[in-house]
Amino acid sequence: MAAPAIDHAMSTASQTQTITIAKGINQGLRAAMEADPKVIVMGEDVGKLGGVFRVTDGLQKDFGEQRVLDTPLAESGIIGTAVGLAIRGYRPVCEIQFDGFIFPGFDQIVSQVAKLHYRTQGRIKMPIVIRVPFGGGIGAVEHHSESPESLFAHTAGLKVVSCSNPVDAYWMIQQAIQCDDPVLFFEPKGRYHEKAQLDPTQTPYPLFRSRVVRTGSKATLVAYGPKVRTCLDAAAAAEEDGLDLEVIDLRTLSPLDLAPVFDSVRRTGRLVVVSEAASESSIASEVAARVQQECFYSLEAPVLRVTGFDSPYPPSKLEEEFLPDLDRVLHAVDRSLAW
Amino acid sequence: MSSPEQWTHPDGAPPATAATPTAEQVIAGLRATTEGGADLVQLLTPEGERVHHPDFDIDITPEELRGLYRDMVLVRRVDREANALQRQGQLGIWVPLLGQEAAQIGAGRAMQPNDMAFPSYREHGVAWCRDVHPTQLLGIFRGTDHGTWDPMEKRFHPYVIVIGNQVLNAAGYAMGQRFDGKVGDADGEATICFFGDGATSQGDVHEGFVWAAVYDAPLVFFCQNNQWAISEPTERQTRLPLYQRAKGYGFPGIRVDGNDVLATLAVTRWALQECRTGNGPVLIEAFTYRMDAHTTSDDPSRYRLSDELELWKLKDPIERVRVHLVKQQWADQEFFDQIQADSDAIAAELREYCVNMPDPGPERIFSNVYAEPSPVLDAQRDEFLDYVSGFAGGEH
Ligand SMILES: Cc1ncc(C[n+]2csc(CCOP(=O)(O)OP(=O)(O)O)c2C)c(N)n1
Ligand SMILES: [Mg+2]
Prior knowledge:
A: five-stranded mixed sheet; 34% helix; B: alpha/beta
């Protein structure tokens, strides 16, 4: 396995550049559109405006209005027409403006996007990417900070991934576009502006693989998307207290790639799973269930989850309390160690 | 395929979207349409001239017009003050109503006490008419709560952010009014539902049209066509002027000058009355303009030309009423001075209230998720409050 995914600082290649997560996705989209004329981008405000987060900035200007579509305001329409375009040989990349607005498109995603390949014995492929800026911490009004990924991971026929850093953002979006299955692509919007060094000549890490991003021996932290950074920060803080934590970035939520997690837990004996989503029937629950099944004799403590609560996302003045932070992660680590 | 012109103008009348900007500019999304076309109902011109309309006219007393003027000036002042509060970090975001005062005050003042309103998120002027104090709007935008007024007491539903959702909810509410026997005479009830031009693309809105039509619901669909859905001009949503869509669903559609408070009042009053007496639903397209950014997070210079704003400033909803009041000698300097003083007072009150709003306690995360107890959530709450109290008093 290659070096940790987060700190790419030291590459010497001349093409190395500093990018943010937003820029990484933007450049990844651009590369995919250059490589394949069938790749099109569609969504609300993605063209002239370049998206409300500017993730598609400049693409319509360079690729034209037939490849970057400012669609009518309807998510069912965006996804439903992407299905037809995919049947016609296109590879649509749909943008859902915010996590909480995916639900008008939910029917099309679950009933058509997820099932057409199965229904047609593989005759129709659905190479659709649905980009979803997700998660909280941006002080927004209702419906702008949600974490609905488990709903899609729960749906057979969909693949679900989430990037946590700019380099992954750049590569994963391109790999998702190349995938012949539909991919829900969850982007940590609260971290869009975090920076890292990208060397585009490097070999990318495979899309559907989890990754150890920090090695340690006392306990394992598992997270994805926005909470990977939180876990790395927690591990750094723990290190000052002489506590050595391993951090794994899941990257792929469906299919889950838990082999690195099992390996890790067999060494550390302790696992804390961290996510902003509510805990019941979640990705975190699934990880916990599988780990207790595979690593039962290695576990020194029950698997603990640090998640959002099983309430709607609260008013933003309460999001600091709602979102798992460094303190809550370390509190769970303490509980695990004290078991 | 037949052209949209043929569809909309079988009699050869000029296209209703005919406009100062060229068609190419409009389609390229550089400019919005500025002219409402031949079917636009107008009672007060941008120059403050009173004109008459064969179907929709209104007897307005000087006192009523002064009241409408006062409403508009005050909600504009509230809007500007809230916008400034956002800029100063006191609100997370603000959704400006600037330019849409006449549409909202005209519609809001057409309502009777028992009528019900379902807003989207920009209806601060309608809230005003429903006696929701402007300070009560702040929690949503400051992030202290998702909404604070009592929807049933005010007959003003909570703000709805997911585009289009409220239209079906309003249709259901109006069906209930009918099922309860509240429709049929002039004392009946009606519902009015607000949404934007962008929203007209959503399935929920189309389904709302179908439901209301099939159940003869007493529902006024009030579409504020402010020409933009964030960065997308109306042409990205429709070929047809929006009011003409109503015909396909089987009810009347009227385009009113949404910058003309008199016309909006007259048309909405008529529409609500139609609904109350059993002739609903009705679609009103209030032709207006979003004079500010979509929200305080938006930068319209990225997608529209500023000369468009200059054109619309000439159609300002407030200025034309002021001119008319002066011309008719229906208002004197003392009146205008008083309104200035009232504006200053409400702006000060809003500011004072805003900066002193307490943050909610962590228990709010868990309250009111369900009407009945939930053992899972209650346990989470207890555990979390316990955890939080561990930090109480000290830095952590
Ligand atoms: C279902 C859904 N999709 C996307 C959004 C994001 N969004 C918020 S406002 C808006 C444009 C709405 O335009 P319009 O209906 O014309 O209303 P206006 O804001 O102009 O009043 C969009 C796309 C949303 N709130 N809900
Ligand atoms: Mg609009």
